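Ticket opened by: R.M.
Priority: normal
Category: complex prediction / small molecule

The reporter submitted a protein together with nicotinamide-adenine-dinucleotide and asked that the result be attached to this ticket for the collaborator who will pick it up next week. Submitted input follows.
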Amino acid sequence: MKKRIVLLPGDGIGKEVMHSAKEVLTAIAEEYNHTFSFENHEIGGAAIDQYGTPLPETTVDACKQADAVLLGAVGGPKWDNNPSHLRPERGLLGIRKALDLYANLRPIKGFKNLLHASPLKEEIVSGSDLLIVRELTGGIYFGTPSERRDNGESVVDTLAYTRREIERIVDKAFQAAQGRRGKLTSVDKANVLESSKMWREIVEEKKAQYPEVSVEHVLVDAAAMKLITNPASFDVVVTENMFGDILSDEASVLTGSLGMLPSASLNESGVGLYEPVHGSAPDIAGKGLANPVAMILSAALMLRYSFELEDEAKIIEDAVQSVLDAGYHTADLQIPNGRQVGTEEMTKLIVDYIRTLNASKCIASCYY
Ligand code: NAD
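Result attached by the on-call engineer:
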């Protein structure tokens, strides 16, 4: 398979973890006969320094022509006092908009060796492996009017969705559930909101197209409780923009480390932007301490959702799992009796696993 990948390392540890993702993808390409071409472009603070804007046209054009985009992270103290049009985050918001990314996917998985770092008891978080599918471009964050009225004495925000906007995110979630354990939880507030009633109707209509997926409807307040009392009961969760914003942050702390969490944002043509949930971590940038796993798992999501290379995605995820199982970890994690390594060594361990796995498969199929 031939694919063109745009890399936007951004700022701080973004550059370091992007290097790791590229090494892993290069190993996958070489071991499994794919051709991935990589093109680097600037975004965020690095783009402000070089081009005077957080999102140069050249970056947007390259992303629009790419098969997928990997993004590191943007921001840092150097640009904190810039005027708002020259803030690094403007680059991030701009590229999400330019690519029309309407679906945000956040997988959250409890790795066995790291469960002790969860704020929840190990027996509660154990077995958690869920995917939150959040609508990203509609709902109350974008509805108009959104304004102060009556000389500031009243205020209005608008929660608006079209049928089409709900259908496409619900379809995406059903499809994701088909590739996982076949359970979909649709989260809404249908006891109060008209938009939620329509959301629930659409999920019910769509159900017939995906008979192998079981569906449950949960109110958002109950979902927030269930996420901390029984997170392992979820497989795929689909919800509208604001509910998803809140629930995905709640869910992200379950596993105890920001350095482990990947994300994907997709548009209708399957092109996606893949990025770790964490930021540019200026406090550790340039020290070789960054945990590259969130970025590497984001690359795995790219293989799964943009390139439909499920086996290769799984190989990367297995590689991460097996390196952690062997006790290796970066400074942000603690594994009892484990061995702390830096960004480069962690990356090398993951790459070595991928290469060894393929070599052993070859030996098995060639000689036995
Ligand atoms: P952050 O995620 O960068 O860091 C929070 C803490 O987690 C820090 O102590 C950091 O060292 C640690 N951390 C984060 N990722 C890590 C990793 N991969 N390995 C090891 N440790 C890791 O959040 P912050 O400190 O609030 O923000 C720093 C900058 O990043 C700010 O400029 C902020 O605007 C920006 N930011 C960018 C994004 C993005 O690009 N998507 C997201 C969040 C924050």
